[in-house]
Write a structure and sequence with these properties.
alpha+beta, Lipocalin, 3 helices
Length: 150
């Protein structure tokens, strides 16, 4: 059970730490602007999609990915991150985070999980992280799409 929690938290954090897609008319993100956006909300997984924006059904996901739907991810200014079960309020796992030097991905170090996750989208209302996870049993690049948790 503990391994499932650690894997779930790791998966969630990996999603949260993906690289930003830039538009030519969008200013280059800075560490401060990215940090401000990350810490402004708790983030709840809303949708999992392919890299070409097709929704991945829950029947296609593994247990670890499914568990992410139960967690609010909270990034704090002090470089810590917590995964909070939004149904029970319990904190099954936590660790640290920091933006990579290019401000387009996030390095996460959580008990039992460590990695760099590209930030695909980061705005006040949306956080999309890229991760590699099983879809129908095959490792695939996926987007984890988070919205602010109320």
């Amino acid at each position: 059970m503990k391994q499932i929690r650690v894997a779930l938290i790791g998966l969630l954090l990996s999603i949260v730490f993906a690289g930003c897609k830039k538009n030519d008319d969008t200013p280059t993100p800075t560490a401060q602007s990215q940090t401000d956006l990350l810490v402004a909300n708790k983030w709840l997984l809303n949708r999992v999609s392919t890299t070409d924006d097709k929704t991945i059904g829950t029947s296609q996901m593994n247990t670890t990915t499914l568990l992410l739907f139960e967690l609010d991810m909270q990034f704090k200014d002090d470089g810590t991150v917590r995964a909070i079960n939004h149904l029970t309020g319990q904190i099954p796992n936590g660790g640290t985070w920091k933006l990579a030097s290019d401000n387009q991905s996030i390095d996460v170090d959580v008990t039992g999980f460590k990695g760099n996750f590209p930030i695909v989208v980061l705005t006040k209302t949306k956080l999309t992280l890229r991760q590699r996870a099983p879809v129908n049993g095959v490792d695939t690049d996926i987007n984890l799409e988070f919205t602010p948790s109320l």
